[in-house]
Amino acid sequence: MLVSEHDGAVAVIRLDNPPVNGLSHHVRETIFAGIEAALGNPEIKAIVLTGAGKIFCGGADLRQFNTPAASAEPSLQLLTERMEASAKPIIAAIDGVAYGGGFELALACHYRVVSPRAQVALPEVKLGLIPGCGGTQRLPRLIGVAPALQMIVGGDPVDAAKAVQLGIADDLIEGDFLAGALAFAERMTAVTAPHPIDIERTAMIADSQDFFSTARAKAAKEKRGFPAPLECIACVEAAVNLPRQEGLAFERQRFIALLNGTESKALRHLFFAEREAAKITGLSSPQETRPITRVGVLGAGTMGAGIAMCFANADIPVTLMEVQQEALDRGLALIRKNYATTVSKGKLSQEKMEHRLGLIEGTLKYEAFSSADLVIEAVFEDMKVKKEVFGRLDQVCKAGAILASNTSRLDINEIAGSTSRPGDVIGLHFFSPANVMRLLEVVRGAKTADDVVATAMQLAKSINKIGVLVGVCDGFVGNRMLTPYSREANFLIEEGASVLQVDQALYDFGMAMGPFAMADMAGLDIGRAARLRQAATRPAHLRYSRVADQICDMGRFGQKTSAGFYRYETSSRIPIPDPEIEALIERCAREDNIQRGPVSSEEIVQRTIYALINEGARILEEEIAQRSSDIDTVYVNGYGFPAYRGGPMFYADSIGLDKVYARICEFHRRHGEYWEPAPLLERLAKEGKRFSSI
Ligand code: NAI
Prior knowledge:
By secondary structure, the chain is an alpha/beta fold.
């Protein structure tokens, strides 16, 4: 609901549509009517537009996109044009956030005043869109091309002080905000000169040609494959080159094209997927969570050090344990070095760094975990070691403490079985670097208590991670899917593609890096350990690529030994194709009677990505993942899958499951039982359904 109030010569229109004062059809209608009424009332000299609660306006309702309600009149276009044309000054009084369409509404006002907690942003680019209602035309005219472009292409919020500095806000009001806004409006009634909206204020840039091509090159590099940033630039360029009305029309046309395109749908899918992932299915009742105020981390290696930082960053004290002083010192030094790098980049103050370091305490004794509410184990990936460690934790940890493992693949149920309290045991699978990567697979064991699951999911949020609940199997969701993906990549190089060609095809598809560059980065010994473990259960008649094992036998473990699938110059991470490896691949193929020939990029992408999809379908059917969008969340946030393709399951849906299924059947005929179509995929394809429909 929205109320219109009068205060002397100033009409106040208040957006009131909880929770974010979203621009629903009703809200637009009421603002429009409020403005008409104020314009028709000779006693009213100015209009203040403000928001109820602690927010101005969060923008359009995402769920209304692509629905008739979104375009029903008065549209936001009509409303903003009406406001802009008003002879009486309209003042946006921004207390709290003004995002997206909410900020565009404010930009169509003649003046803007802000409270100290105000924040303004045009975040549409993050959902694969551009501001669709004048944002790209009005903001450059208001504050100049360069800062406007930065806000529109970056999508990040600007606070009140910065808004004043940039010229977005005309005044910063401390104290009674509404009184201050009304006083400002009163002053504006006395202004005889035209109100600023009438003035073309675009600060033209000296050499616009160069400016925009530089911006395009930067966006293409930093946002490779994303169309929206380039469209943002095109619209701001139109603001410079075209009259206002033509610029607005251009922006509208580009907005609609993006709105109907796959990329924006994919990004919106991921936006909702991330929120959905936090919901836990199958809990007996709403669960009380256990308080987590002190955490223990076991193992100060690559993962343990990063995990300790995650908690210190969230102001939670951590005890970090190692078996030997030397390893502990190395871990603590790694943490200090990581923080120091952040400080040197100006992203953390020295004072905060010291505070965080002060929260991490090193120890060599299990007894130091006696008061911990949660202990996360990150020792070697070896079941025997893990069981021993959990047996010790069982002895020293207090009743009710949660015992978690960061294992990437091992059986959480078996680990839990080495304690007397399997209900308190859970998997917390962080990704490397743990202090940076936002994904956290929360692995629910067969006996994990419901409140432990609920606590872990809530904890994920409090340490700024995206928690995705998964079940127990070799590799959970992410690493399990990685297995057939890597398998196909290895088969493809035996069949005639070069290492570089496979990586390039998948990089061009949008992956952050190709599978071989990734394997070299992670360390080839990690994959080998997993293959050795799987060897016992791998049927002997199935094809197996020995290439990676033989590379390991040469002492090449990837970047850390400056050689793996590629070679690396000393202290460089740039992969250089290595003829020695190509020769090794040819030899392996010859020995295994594999026919070599040209392999197309299309084949590379389909063989690897469809392998992900087929495995994803099995994971879904086995209920290892709660929903297909969770698999997408895992793959985009943990494995470098291009966000603008929405994740492997959304990508499959967007191609059509019938087509994906048909191709997988063809691979099955050509390459045998690895490619047996997942029953769920087959069923959905035949019923004309999508993964997202189940
Ligand atoms: P790492 O080898 O860097 O570190 C392991 C640390 O554990 C070493 O510092 C070692 O001294 C210590 N340690 C061994 N036994 C111990 C014990 N009984 N008590 C205390 N400390 C002990 O290994 P990393 O890479 O950190 O992996 C640790 C775990 O995290 C493994 O289970 C691994 O599968 C998992 N993981 C690894 C990822 C990665 O990218 N490296 C990603 C996700 C999970």
